Amino acid sequence: MGKNALGRVALMSIRPEFANAILSGEKVVEFRKRPVADDVSHVLIYATMPVGSLLGWFAVRGQKTMSPKGLWSTFRAVGGISKSRFFDYYDEREHGTGILVETARRFPEPVPLAELGSSLRPPQSFQYLTAAQADTFFKMVRRQPNAESDSELYPLACVG
User: Fold this and answer.
1) Digits of tens for pLDDT over the chain (160 positions)?
2) CA–CA distance, 64 with 154 (Å, rounded to integer)
3) Measured on CA atoms in the order 135, 5, 56, 60, is the torsion positive or negative?
4) How many CA atoms lie within 13 A of 4 on its CB side?
5) Cα–Cα distance between 5 and 149 in angstroms, integer?
6) Is the bond leading into 68 cis (omega within 30 degrees of zero)?
7) What is the rounded CA–CA span in Å between residue 128 and residue 37?
């Protein structure tokens, strides 16, 4: 992924407590059983029930796939999850992935999933947005009152 490129967008179902921790900056890695594609630049956060809405998004800094023990050792201080809950999630898994959060932004109000298209359903884990859905997402982000510039969408382009 080039520093100035917008890649694919993944729509990710995240439990409300973890979604809020990401959006508050407390949690800077999202744990998953499998990685997203290398060209994913942004994750759109769908908070599962009882919220059932889009709460915000984050830019992806990268991802690390390794053993659950390695993930815990590396990210326990910033993972926003208890040790027991973490290892229950990865029970009997040889590998897991930590998706690193570069920047995270909350929408001023929760957004119904239908804003991206009436046929879209909450994913079990994650799914990739179509080009049209991603375009709608980027337009939503640019309309936000706290979006100062394209640096919101290109966080890595603004480094160094």
Assistant:
1) 444 468 899 999 999 999 999 999 999 999 999 999 999 999 999 999 999 999 999 999 999 999 999 999 999 999 999 999 999 999 999 999 999 999 999 999 999 999 998 788 899 999 999 999 999 998 888 887 665 555 555 443 333 2
2) 21
3) positive
4) 1
5) 15
6) no
7) 9
Evaluate whether 96 touches 68 at the Cβ level (below 8 Å): yes
Q: Which two tokens stand for residue 87?
A: 């290892």
Tokens 């290892």 belong to 87
Helix residue spans in 32-159 (DSSP H): 68-75, 83-89, 131-143
Strand ranges in 1-149 using DSSP code E only, listed in sequence order: 8-14, 29-32, 40-47, 53-66, 96-111, 126-128
Contact (Cβ atoms closer than 8 angstroms) between residue 64 and residue 79: no
Reported as half-sphere exposure (CB side, CA atoms, 13 A), residue 87 has a value of 6
The CATH number given to 8-158 is: 2.30.130.30
Phi/psi at 130 (5° precision): -70, 170
- Give the separation between CA 73 and CA 59, rounded to whole angstroms: 23
